[in-house]
Each structure stands twice: as C-alpha cells, then as structure tokens.
Design brief:
With 482 residues, this protein is mainly alpha-helical. The chain has a domain of 101 residues. The chain is 65% helix and 1% strand. It has 22 helices and 2 strands. A two-stranded antiparallel ribbon has the order 1-2. β1 and β2 form a beta hairpin. The N and C termini lie close together (6 Å).
C-alpha cells in the first residue's frame, strides 16, 4: 500500500473539483452575482492549489494494486466532498460547515437530502454548483478518472472495480478509458436532451439545466422548495421518462441505442420495468381519488423516484396510509439497474439473492440436486453469489447500526423525531434517495437534525454511494498491512 500514491490521486481529484467550480463562477457572472462569483473563484483557487501541491509532492505514478484501488475510491470521495464545501462556506450561502458538508455529501453522493428550507433563496451560482455536484457524482468522479488518470501515469482499472464491487465493470471496448468516454458521452447526451425537453415546457433554461443535471444523476436536488411538484403535468412526465432512463444501465443504453431490442432481451431491464409497474399500480389503487389523471401520474412518479433513488417529490407520501408508507420505505431498498446512476441495493442483487434462497430450499427437498442462480440464461458463479450475499449483509448491518446510532443521537438531543422519521432518514441516506417520512418527508428537510446526526447521515450517504466496500475496507487492518 503506497500512501503517497493515494495522496497523489486525492490531490488530482481535489484539483479537478476546483476546476469544476469555475463553471459555477461563470454562471454567477452571467447573472451579475459579482460577490459570489469572486468567492467561488477563490474557492476554486484554493482547491486547485491544494490539489496541485498534493499531486506534485506525492507523485508516485504506476499501476494501482487492487487494495490501493479500493482505498483510493474512499479517500478520493471524502477529499472531493470536503473540497466541494468551499463555495458554500466562502459565499456565506451555507455558513455552517456541518450544514455545508451535509449538502455537499448529498450532492456528490446523489442523495438529494437537504438542510435548505427553500433552495430558491440561493444565488444562481451556488444553485448551479449544488446541482453540478450531483451531476458529477452521478456517473462517478472515479469513473471519469479512468479516462484521465492514465494520462497522469496512474492506472484506473482498479478504481472502476472498486466502485462496483461484486460485479466486473461492463466493458464496451477493450480499453477502460474508451469505455469511460463512451459512457460519459451517453450521459451528456441524455442530460442535454432532457434540458431541451424541459426548456420547451414551463421551465427557464437555468431551471431546465439544473433539473436535467439532478435527474440524470438520480440526485433529486430542485430549484424551489416544492421540487417537481411546483411544475405542471408536462414537466413531471418528462422527468419520469428521464428518471427511468437514468435508472437503466448505461452500458445497456449504449447497446440499446444501436438495437432497441437489447432492452427487451436484458433480464435486468425486464425486472426493473416489472418492479416499477407493480409499484405504480399498488400506489395508484391505494391513493385512488376523483382526479384520476393526477392520481395515476403521482403514483408513477413516486414509484419511479423511489426505485431509481432520485428523490424528487410531487406528493407527500408521508401522508398516505400506513401500508403505503411501509411500501415507500421498502422501495428505498430496491434501486435501479447495475451500471445506472441510481443507488440502493440494485435489481440484479435482489434477483440473485432470491434465486440463491430458493435454491437452498430446493436442496432441502433434493439433497443431491445441483441448482445454480442464473442472470437471464447465464449461470451465476458461486463467487458472485457470495459477493452479493456479503454486500447485502453489510448493507443491512450498516442500516441497522446507522439507525441505532441515529436514534441515540436524536434521543440525546431531544429532537422531535418519531420512529418512522428516524428509520426512513437512515434508509434514505444509505440508499441515496433524499426524502424520508415524517420530519424528513418530501414536504420538509433535514435542518432539524442535530449536527452529529448530520455527520452520521453524510457518512452513510458516501458509504451507500460507494456500495459499502471501499469505505468499510478503509477501517480494516488487512487493507493497510504490508
């Protein structure tokens, strides 16, 4: 394990974060927000200065080992999040550092939880930076680095494996750098296409760009306190379509754009569509009212926003029946397809877990039988099954431990949080969703959470975004042992 190499990578990521800040400063200049633009330029200069110094001082080029790849992912995301707080703090838009870190973690992790009662009160420059953090985090700063780090003399294959443990990255080409470039082109293309559709409706160009950033990243940050609910039916249907696109594997998009039948053939997409359809029907039946069109649209919107972990809101599901609230929390544990920008457990893991459990039951009846889970027509190796089982065990352990710790923090602070609010806040943070129930529901925010609770939830956001393993491994002795 080379600590110098890890710090070298962290420096490159911090510097890249600083470069991204200049786009927010330009937006500020366009809206004549001179003070905020100047402070964001200062923030960019600080990030680039610190990152550049680390990159130069700790220069250790060479191919990363597997252990270094996992460590680099965790350290880089933490470093990027700390650097991303600078525009919020220096402009004074979010002066409290804990709140700024929470908002930034929610951005880069594409969680969408917020401490802001009204995002519309922010300057255009900061609002753009807030949305941009989600867009960057959507495909992953580490995936982007697959194309960049080799130019710096650092291999990126291990970084991709570390960000998606348990399943090999779906190469579209023999070279990882070329694969990353093609995925980013698709990501940028869909983002631009959604912005055009939203702009053609009732949104301004600024609102359209911001919401396309936070839709394609399945992040869920909005520009107003009412989220997508502040806009009409046309806008909501556009967002529904692109949330579904964002929750679909981008490798499948690459193949499907050439041959649309690839979507139908893919077992993950069929299961993904089935889950969305069943959830929408159940919610529609449970919320059936006189305004049939609104009921159907809200049911589809909520099912899609929860399964894809986007977190936009049009209806306060915290006001629904107890059964539907429980269902809403359950949907937080599903997630979209592997290779998408959504968070949570993911569809393919649920399928493998179900098949493995079913096969265990079948072995009780047929002890000599040979049963193997399949993904479509392909058999799934025992190593992959064990990896999925380990991930789910760690995910549930993180959820239960996080809930217990968050409950202790809430009790000690005397905050007015009930059990649904506490449980859903942790489930939302770990699954990178955004709103929960009750005190942290779609009609509220996370401002009332004690500072220590915000740090815990922010850590859970990052743990969930990196799919558990890279952060957990940072605290194991084996990772750092020579």
């Amino acid at each position: 394990m080379s600590l110098r190499r890890l710090l070298h990578i962290a420096g490159a990521v911090i510097g890249a974060t600083g470069v991204a800040m200049f786009s927010a400063a330009i937006v500020g200049l366009m809206y004549q927000e001179w003070g905020d633009s100047l402070q964001i330029v200062l923030a960019a200069a600080i990030a680039i200065g610190i990152g550049g110094a680390m990159w130069k001082v700790f220069d250790r080029p060479g191919e990363l080992t597997t252990r270094e790849g996992f460590a680099a992912v965790g350290i880089a995301w933490l470093a990027m999040t700390f650097a991303g707080t600078l525009p919020f703090v220096l402009t004074g838009e979010i002066s409290n550092f804990t709140d700024a870190f929470f908002e930034t973690a929610a951005g880069f992790s594409t969680t969408g939880s917020s401490i802001l009662p009204d995002p519309g009160a922010l300057s255009h420059a900061i609002l753009f930076w807030r949305s941009l953090t989600q867009w960057i985090g959507g495909m992953g700063i580490i995936v982007l680095s697959i194309a960049i780090l080799p130019l710096l003399g650092v291999g990126g294959v291990q970084l991709a494996r570390a960000e998606s443990p348990g399943v090999n990255p779906d190469r579209l080409t023999p070279r990882f750098a070329e694969t990353a470039r093609r995925l980013w082109l698709i990501y940028i293309g869909f983002t631009g296409l959604e912005a055009l559709f939203l702009w053609a409706g009732e949104m301004t160009l600024f609102e359209a760009v911001n919401h396309s950033f936070t839709t394609m990243s399945t992040g869920g940050f909005g520009t107003t306190s009412g989220s997508i609910g502040d806009f009409g039916a046309y806008t909501q249907w556009v967002v529904i379509v692109f949330m579904v696109i964002a929750g679909t594997s981008f490798a499948l998009h690459y193949k499907g754009l050439r041959s649309p039948l690839e979507y139908v053939r893919h077992p993950g997409f069929r299961l993904y569509a089935l889950v969305l359809g069943v959830a929408a029907v159940v919610i529609a039946v449970g919320t059936w009212g006189t305004a049939i069109a609104d009921t159907i649209r809200d049911a589809i919107f909520v099912s899609v926003t929860l399964v894809t972990t986007t977190g936009f809101g049009t209806a306060d599901f915290g006001q629904w029946s107890v059964f539907l609230q429980i269902m809403a929390v359950g949907l937080m544990f599903i997630g979209g397809m592997a290779g998408s920008t959504s968070g949570s457990v993911k569809i393919y893991r649920h399928s493998i877990l179900y098949q493995a459990s079913r096969n265990d039951l079948r072995r009780l009846i047929h002890p000599r039988g040979v049963f193997m889970p399949r993904w479509g027509k392909d058999p799934v190796s025992e190593a992959v099954v064990e990896s999925v089982q380990s991930f789910f065990l760690l995910y549930m352990f993180a959820f239960m431990t996080g809930t217990a710790l968050f409950g202790i923090i809430i009790s000690a602070s005397g905050s007015p949080f009930d059990i649904p609010s506490t449980v859903s806040a942790v489930a939302s943070a770990l699954g990178n969703i955004g709103p929960g129930l009750g005190a942290v529901g779609p009609a509220s925010n996370f401002a009332a959470v004690p500072d220590l609770g915000k740090w815990l939830l922010a850590l859970l956001m990052i743990v969930g975004r990196l799919e558990i393993f890279p952060i957990v491994l940072l605290f194991t002795r084996e990772l750092w042992r020579r």
